[in-house]
Write a structure and sequence with these properties.
Layout: E1 16-20, E2 35-49, E3 55-61, E4 66-67, E5 81-94, H1 95-104, H2 106-132, H3 135-146, E6 151-152, H4 156-163, H5 167-179, E7 183-186, E8 190-193, H6 196-204
Antiparallel strand pairs: 1-5, 2-3, 2-4, 2-5, 6-8, 7-8
Helix pairs in contact: 1-2, 3-6, 4-5
Protein name: Catabolite gene activator
GO cellular component, one term: cytosol
GO molecular function: DNA binding; DNA-binding transcription factor activity
Length: about 210
Protein backbone atom coordinates (compact mmCIF):
# COMPACT_ATOMS: atom_id res chain seq x y z
CA UNK A 1 0.00 0.00 0.00
CA UNK A 2 1.33 3.41 -0.96
CA UNK A 3 1.16 6.17 1.64
CA UNK A 4 0.80 9.57 -0.03
CA UNK A 5 -0.46 11.83 2.77
CA UNK A 6 1.47 15.10 2.68
CA UNK A 7 3.83 15.67 5.60
CA UNK A 8 3.02 18.82 7.61
CA UNK A 9 5.87 21.25 6.93
CA UNK A 10 6.21 22.14 10.62
CA UNK A 11 7.68 18.67 11.28
CA UNK A 12 10.83 19.40 9.30
CA UNK A 13 11.73 22.52 11.27
CA UNK A 14 13.45 20.43 13.97
CA UNK A 15 15.12 17.86 11.73
CA UNK A 16 18.90 17.49 11.51
CA UNK A 17 20.66 15.72 8.63
CA UNK A 18 22.41 12.45 9.49
CA UNK A 19 24.24 9.82 7.46
CA UNK A 20 24.49 6.14 8.39
CA UNK A 21 27.01 3.96 6.57
CA UNK A 22 26.29 0.50 5.20
CA UNK A 23 26.05 -2.26 7.87
CA UNK A 24 25.59 0.33 10.64
CA UNK A 25 22.85 -0.26 13.24
CA UNK A 26 20.75 2.88 13.70
CA UNK A 27 19.23 1.66 16.98
CA UNK A 28 21.00 -0.44 19.61
CA UNK A 29 19.21 -3.44 21.09
CA UNK A 30 17.87 -2.97 24.64
CA UNK A 31 18.36 0.79 24.53
CA UNK A 32 15.70 3.47 24.79
CA UNK A 33 14.59 5.13 21.56
CA UNK A 34 15.48 8.82 21.82
CA UNK A 35 15.23 9.83 18.15
CA UNK A 36 13.03 9.29 15.09
CA UNK A 37 14.41 9.27 11.57
CA UNK A 38 12.90 10.25 8.24
CA UNK A 39 14.77 8.53 5.40
CA UNK A 40 15.79 10.67 2.43
CA UNK A 41 17.67 7.90 0.61
CA UNK A 42 19.02 4.41 1.24
CA UNK A 43 17.62 1.16 2.65
CA UNK A 44 17.32 -0.19 6.21
CA UNK A 45 16.48 -3.80 7.10
CA UNK A 46 14.31 -4.33 10.21
CA UNK A 47 14.38 -7.84 11.66
CA UNK A 48 14.08 -10.11 14.71
CA UNK A 49 16.45 -12.94 15.67
CA UNK A 50 14.42 -15.66 17.39
CA UNK A 51 15.64 -17.86 20.25
CA UNK A 52 15.40 -20.91 17.98
CA UNK A 53 18.09 -19.46 15.70
CA UNK A 54 15.74 -18.33 12.95
CA UNK A 55 15.35 -14.76 11.71
CA UNK A 56 12.25 -12.87 10.58
CA UNK A 57 12.53 -9.71 8.52
CA UNK A 58 9.64 -7.43 9.38
CA UNK A 59 10.22 -4.74 6.80
CA UNK A 60 12.60 -2.72 4.65
CA UNK A 61 12.57 1.04 5.20
CA UNK A 62 13.23 3.21 2.16
CA UNK A 63 13.02 6.83 1.00
CA UNK A 64 10.12 8.69 2.68
CA UNK A 65 9.80 6.06 5.44
CA UNK A 66 10.05 6.72 9.18
CA UNK A 67 12.00 4.79 11.82
CA UNK A 68 11.07 4.94 15.50
CA UNK A 69 7.72 6.64 14.96
CA UNK A 70 5.83 4.05 17.05
CA UNK A 71 7.60 5.36 20.14
CA UNK A 72 5.85 8.69 19.69
CA UNK A 73 2.73 7.06 21.14
CA UNK A 74 4.00 3.96 22.94
CA UNK A 75 7.50 3.29 24.27
CA UNK A 76 9.00 0.27 22.52
CA UNK A 77 10.53 -1.91 25.24
CA UNK A 78 11.70 -4.46 22.68
CA UNK A 79 13.77 -2.76 19.98
CA UNK A 80 13.91 -4.71 16.75
CA UNK A 81 17.26 -5.33 15.13
CA UNK A 82 18.04 -3.03 12.21
CA UNK A 83 20.86 -2.77 9.73
CA UNK A 84 21.66 -0.30 6.96
CA UNK A 85 21.80 -2.15 3.63
CA UNK A 86 22.58 0.92 1.52
CA UNK A 87 24.01 4.16 2.92
CA UNK A 88 21.21 6.18 4.49
CA UNK A 89 20.74 9.93 4.33
CA UNK A 90 18.05 10.99 6.77
CA UNK A 91 16.64 13.65 9.04
CA UNK A 92 17.00 13.02 12.77
CA UNK A 93 14.37 14.22 15.26
CA UNK A 94 14.47 14.34 19.05
CA UNK A 95 11.54 12.13 20.04
CA UNK A 96 10.49 14.24 23.04
CA UNK A 97 10.26 17.37 20.89
CA UNK A 98 8.28 15.45 18.29
CA UNK A 99 5.94 14.08 20.99
CA UNK A 100 5.34 17.62 22.26
CA UNK A 101 4.55 18.72 18.71
CA UNK A 102 2.02 15.89 18.36
CA UNK A 103 0.27 17.07 21.54
CA UNK A 104 0.21 20.67 20.40
CA UNK A 105 -0.68 20.17 16.74
CA UNK A 106 -3.58 17.94 15.74
CA UNK A 107 -2.48 17.87 12.10
CA UNK A 108 0.93 16.45 13.05
CA UNK A 109 -0.61 13.88 15.40
CA UNK A 110 -3.12 12.77 12.75
CA UNK A 111 -0.35 12.48 10.15
CA UNK A 112 1.66 10.05 12.30
CA UNK A 113 -1.46 8.10 13.28
CA UNK A 114 -2.34 7.73 9.58
CA UNK A 115 1.24 6.72 8.70
CA UNK A 116 1.37 4.04 11.42
CA UNK A 117 -2.08 2.71 10.47
CA UNK A 118 -0.99 2.40 6.85
CA UNK A 119 2.19 0.55 7.89
CA UNK A 120 0.22 -1.96 9.98
CA UNK A 121 -2.32 -2.54 7.18
CA UNK A 122 0.51 -3.07 4.69
CA UNK A 123 2.15 -5.71 6.89
CA UNK A 124 -1.20 -7.46 7.41
CA UNK A 125 -1.82 -7.46 3.67
CA UNK A 126 1.64 -8.95 3.05
CA UNK A 127 0.90 -11.79 5.48
CA UNK A 128 -2.27 -12.53 3.52
CA UNK A 129 -0.33 -12.49 0.24
CA UNK A 130 2.15 -15.04 1.62
CA UNK A 131 -0.72 -17.47 2.05
CA UNK A 132 -2.58 -16.85 -1.21
CA UNK A 133 -0.17 -15.98 -4.04
CA UNK A 134 2.74 -17.69 -5.74
CA UNK A 135 6.32 -16.68 -4.97
CA UNK A 136 6.70 -15.59 -8.60
CA UNK A 137 3.93 -13.00 -8.20
CA UNK A 138 5.12 -11.85 -4.79
CA UNK A 139 8.75 -11.58 -5.87
CA UNK A 140 7.80 -9.53 -8.93
CA UNK A 141 5.93 -7.11 -6.64
CA UNK A 142 8.88 -7.03 -4.23
CA UNK A 143 11.39 -6.23 -6.98
CA UNK A 144 9.19 -3.41 -8.29
CA UNK A 145 8.86 -1.99 -4.80
CA UNK A 146 12.55 -2.06 -3.91
CA UNK A 147 14.31 -1.48 -7.23
CA UNK A 148 16.26 1.75 -7.51
CA UNK A 149 16.82 3.23 -10.94
CA UNK A 150 16.33 -0.13 -12.62
CA UNK A 151 18.67 -1.99 -10.25
CA UNK A 152 17.58 -4.63 -7.75
CA UNK A 153 20.16 -5.83 -5.22
CA UNK A 154 18.56 -7.17 -2.04
CA UNK A 155 20.14 -10.49 -1.04
CA UNK A 156 18.30 -13.77 -1.61
CA UNK A 157 18.73 -14.62 2.08
CA UNK A 158 16.95 -11.42 3.13
CA UNK A 159 14.16 -12.03 0.63
CA UNK A 160 13.62 -15.62 1.80
CA UNK A 161 13.40 -14.46 5.44
CA UNK A 162 11.05 -11.62 4.51
CA UNK A 163 8.73 -13.78 2.41
CA UNK A 164 8.94 -16.88 4.58
CA UNK A 165 10.15 -18.91 1.59
CA UNK A 166 13.16 -21.17 1.22
CA UNK A 167 16.40 -19.73 -0.15
CA UNK A 168 16.36 -22.40 -2.85
CA UNK A 169 12.87 -21.39 -4.00
CA UNK A 170 13.83 -17.69 -4.18
CA UNK A 171 16.97 -18.56 -6.13
CA UNK A 172 14.92 -20.70 -8.54
CA UNK A 173 12.44 -17.90 -9.30
CA UNK A 174 15.24 -15.35 -9.78
CA UNK A 175 16.95 -17.79 -12.15
CA UNK A 176 13.69 -18.14 -14.11
CA UNK A 177 13.40 -14.35 -14.36
CA UNK A 178 16.92 -14.23 -15.78
CA UNK A 179 16.27 -17.02 -18.28
CA UNK A 180 13.06 -15.30 -19.41
CA UNK A 181 14.82 -11.99 -20.03
CA UNK A 182 13.24 -10.17 -17.10
CA UNK A 183 16.47 -9.70 -15.13
CA UNK A 184 20.18 -9.78 -15.93
CA UNK A 185 22.77 -10.51 -13.25
CA UNK A 186 25.53 -7.96 -12.76
CA UNK A 187 28.48 -8.84 -10.50
CA UNK A 188 28.78 -5.33 -9.09
CA UNK A 189 25.23 -3.96 -9.12
CA UNK A 190 23.14 -7.07 -8.40
CA UNK A 191 20.38 -7.45 -11.00
CA UNK A 192 19.45 -5.13 -13.85
CA UNK A 193 15.75 -5.06 -14.74
CA UNK A 194 15.36 -5.71 -18.47
CA UNK A 195 11.59 -6.12 -18.71
CA UNK A 196 9.68 -3.88 -16.33
CA UNK A 197 6.39 -4.59 -18.10
CA UNK A 198 6.65 -8.33 -17.45
CA UNK A 199 7.16 -7.69 -13.74
CA UNK A 200 4.18 -5.35 -13.72
CA UNK A 201 2.01 -8.01 -15.41
CA UNK A 202 3.05 -10.57 -12.79
CA UNK A 203 2.22 -8.06 -10.08
CA UNK A 204 -1.23 -7.45 -11.57
CA UNK A 205 -1.98 -11.19 -11.60
CA UNK A 206 -2.23 -11.15 -7.81
Amino acid sequence: MFFDKEIPSIIFENGKKRTFKKNHNIYKINSKITHCYFILSGTVKIYIDHTNGRRSILDFALENDWLGELSLFHEESDIKENKVLQEVECLEFDIEKLQALCKENAEVSFYFAAYISNKLLTRSYRMSENLNYSLENRLATFILQYEQKGIYNISHTDVSEYMNASYRHVLYVIKQFCENGVLAKDKEKGYIILDMEKLERLQEEK
